[in-house]
Amino acid sequence: MADLILVLNAGSSSLKFCAFDAGGSGGLALVIHGQAEGLFSSPRFTAFDAHGQPAGEHAWGEGVQLSHAEAITHIADFLRGQGSGHRLVAVGHRVVHGGAHFTQPVLATAAILDQLETLTPLAPLHQPHNLRPMRIIAERMPSMPQVACFDTAFHTTQPPLAQAFALPESVTKKGVRRYGFHGLSYEYIASVLPDIAPEAATGRTVVAHLGNGASLCALRAGKSVASTMGFTAVDGLMMGTRCGTLDPGVVLYLLDELGMDAGEIEDLLYRRSGLLGVSGISGDMRALLAADDPRAVFAIDLYVYRICRELGSMGAALHGLDALVFTAGIGQHSAEIRRRVCEEARWWGIELDDAANARGGPRVSTPTSKVSAWVVPTNEELMIARHTLALTQGAPA
Ligand code: ADP
Which parts of the sequence bind ATP (predicted)? Predict the structure, then answer.
């Protein structure tokens, strides 16, 4: 009977899952993945096998509310119904915040869960949702090993200067500092670079994680030395619906002069800004690339400009640049955005190979390009599964 590792990524209204066979000789193999989404409006469950073929589907209907506990029950029943050849041995979870203390994944005992709960004020929009499934599973299956994997942990190698805000020590001591996010994605990329792009693995490399959320990470020999996201995941690059770096004076202006309250400002900065806010059309890059509208053009121009400005900042932290790696939805799939970024960043010594870029890489720069450019698909779920296996069965992560 094969051992199964379940990876859960819980959001406010969705629960994504991936199941990996841990027993194979070739390492962790994806068996099935899917999600329950729209939990509080119009819940829908979909699942796909390892080849991307539909494996399950269910809709509860408009206006129905499905709790996280009910979604977990549905996923568990679905997995059980998939055959008797597997035995669930551990569950790995994506947890947005590990604070200053959690520098690597950890077995989530009851005491650890209590500790992680105290970090909720640092990530109120994500942390409670990440922790909820852990509590539910601990209650239902007390002996099931659970592992918490943090989006912040990979960045704890950054030097103190990169982690600091220029704020009084009394404020810093309360945990107000730069943490960085998308760490599981960067960790996965760093783990595969030695095979795909050895010079990027050992050199000064910027990884551009361009999904709905987006950030850059500066890697020196595979370790994070700086990133564009700071205290929260709203910092840095322009994103699908998040504004990225903003003069803090703007927040005070919104508060004092425009009379907005904290909830309204949060909604503006996280859900109504970025590509969506600037274009007024969509936060989805595909839709904007297809739109024949000057507002879409301007939004994309700003998106590329912001990446290239921040690339300069990452390059300064690294004292130079040897390689640029694109990943996540936009980075992996949009040859057009890669082309625009590489052209704007040409002065760094990046020379794009148009044919290779159109093919999707992995190398998208010419052989003579001073700075190499790459496309490397990320796999945060596999990274979580590796950590879960390592912590529960002693396998290397
Ligand atoms: P998340 O951060 O939610 O995991 P993804 O990494 O899947 O999201 O990235 C979603 C973004 O990727 C969306 O803006 C989507 O439009 C964009 N995207 C996906 N495929 C393409 C494509 N072929 N061309 C341009 N953008 C794409």
Answer: 16, 209-213, 284-286
Positions at the binding site for substrate: 94
Nearest to 217 by CA among 352, 72, 315, 108: 315
Q: Per-residue pLDDT for 244 more than 70?
A: yes
> Is there a shared CATH topology between the 2-150 domain and the 198-380 domain?
yes
Residues with CB under 6 A from ligand 1: 211-213, 240, 284-286, 289, 328-330, 333-334
Residue 216 pLDDT more than 90? yes
What is the fold of 198-380? Nucleotidyltransferase; domain 5 (3.30.420)
pTM for this entry:
0.95
Domain boundaries, the chain: 2-150, 198-380
Q: Which pair of structure tokens corresponds to residue 352?
A: 């794009």
User: Model confidence over 340-375: pLDDT tens digits?
Assistant: 999 999 999 999 999 999 999 999 999 999 999 999
Task: Give the pLDDT mean for 301-327.
Answer: 98
Looking at the domain that runs over 2-150, which CATH code has it been given? 3.30.420.40
What is the distance in A from the centroid of ligand 1 to the CA of 184? 18
C-alpha 212 – ligand 1 centre gap (Å): 6
Ligand 1 centroid–CA 240 distance in Å is: 9
Asked whether the predicted pLDDT for residue 85 surpasses 80, the reply is: no
Annotated binding site for ATP: 16, 209-213, 284-286
Going 243 to 233 to 7 to 72, the CA torsion angle's sign is negative
Pair 216, 251: CB distance under 8 Å: no
